[in-house]
Amino acid sequence: MKTVSTINLALRPTTKDLAKAAGVSRATVDRVLNGREGVKEKTVERVNLAIKELGFVRNLQAANLAKSQSYRFIFALPSSGDQFLEQIVSRIKEAQTIFAADHVFCDVQHIDENDPHSISAFLASLDQSDVTGVAIMSPETPQVRDATMRLQERGIAALPFVSNQTLMNENWVGIDNKAAGATASLLLGQWIGQRTGKIMVIAESMQSRDSLERRLGFDGIMNESFPNLQPLPSLETYGNETRAKDIIAANLSNNPDIVGIYVMSSEARAPLRILQELNVDPNIAKFAHEMTPYTEEALRAKKLDGVVAQNPGHLVRSAIRRLKGIVDNRTTLGSQESIRVEIHLRTNV
To answer: Which residues pair with 202 in a beta bridge?
Structure first.
């Protein structure tokens, strides 16, 4: 096989440099880079060898602009939600400006998170000619998993958003929920100290994987480090405030020795407001998830002791970069896409 001639490059190598090193035309280099047919296997090998030796990195933005490549990404978000969801929608709008130079356009489609069949039907309605990729915030169900797989088979990029799906463990955007639950458990246990009692745990639904993982992380640390505390079974509100008030009130009545409350769902406003209406003892420690205007004010007013959170802006930007990476067949930088577990107290809001 013909060897590649050496070129000393002080600047970033170009396709012209590749062509010279491989002994081919720039048109041939372009065909190899774009995976088009009509190039001999030995020629492809020479171009790939030149790419490796010169450290060539393709400028995808320039290439996409040249061929008028654009990206239309849809964020499929729950139809019911509170301030955390509002923050995500706001950050999606901001991302339109941030990624405008990359020809990225984002839309929000609200879905009924409690109806997997309607979510499946929505995903089935998407066409590659209209949509480039979808970020899906939905509980894991067989219907949603199957619809996501068929979506990918049709050439549309897809990834779970905020709430993970087992189908795509390596390519999703969200916090490590087991670590988040463990963090909340450690903070709550240390906050309570040597007191003995029970912990109320409030969730929206234990069918969602993020709640399951948070509960696993929470129980692991609680059982290991705080034998003086007993976590109670999770209360499921299903996003219904009337139900939430009834079950929280009954739980408090049946367990007068509650010393801590953990709001595990991403929307803490309704449970916290109900606890305030029920005149819960202010000495009971309270920890929740996600920083919103309500939880921030609750921290400042000492109605909440701590919040374990993830950054909505980082979530949205990471989802766009990952979807774009899937479309461009390019790996994103893992350290940049890792969503940190953030701890917020009254002293650092």
So the answer is: 235, 263
